[in-house]
Amino acid sequence: MEVKIEQSWKDLLQEEFNKPYFQELTDFVREEYQSKKIFPPPKDIFKAFDLCPFDKVKVVILGQDPYHGPGQAHGLCFSVNHDIPMPPSLVNIYKEIETDIGKPMPNHGNLEYWAEQGVFLLNATLTVIAHMAGSHQKKGWETFTDEVIRLISEKKDHVVFILWGAYAQDKAWMIDEKKHLILKAPHPSPLSAHRGFFGCKHFSQANKYLKSHNLEPIEWV
Length: 221
Prior knowledge:
By secondary structure, the chain is an alpha/beta fold. Helices cover 37% and strands 11% of the residues. The chain has helices spanning 7-17, 20-35, 47-51, 88-101, 112-115, 141-155, 165-169, 202-212; strands at residues 38-39, 59-63, 119-123, 128-129, 160-164, 181-185. The chain has a 4-stranded parallel sheet. A two-stranded antiparallel sheet has the order 1-4. Strand 5, helix 7 and strand 6 (181-185) form a beta-alpha-beta unit. The longest helix has 16 residues, at 20-35. The protein is globular, with a radius of gyration of 17 Å.
């Protein structure tokens, strides 16, 4: 089937798009957008892919599902549009960056500048009903995004996979540790950040690994 997505991903995922489950998922999502308030806007569902082509992927950060408040979700995990207040998890991410690499917190929560440098900001579920966290889980999105993770692991070398929280860490089995770096910590949510997210130094560790493999480090701020 025809999916509007960046060309390198389209080529890589065409088999997946043609599978029955993906057709069912597409039908479900289309119907949901017609009958309910769904985030992100349809044009942003695949923004993580559109801003970070497959050949540019250097770091993968995994989220669970999109923000479900008005105007927040725009297709990148943990990121919000420029004019939206920063969610608490993102504030904690920036606090850790400041502690880790000494860069002060920016005045916005839009992470498109990460994506454009090769940070693939992937939610396991790509859509959500307004004000209903997790409402589009187990509809097929996870099957799709698991395959995305598996393909990155299989077809690329020296990618940093950043897994925050139990949900993301459950995906580690799909990643080949012999050729990639896996970094794990508690989720940056205020409920868990003090259990080891703060002090994890994932941002400096990621850059050290990239540089050791002759890859450009990420400008985190």
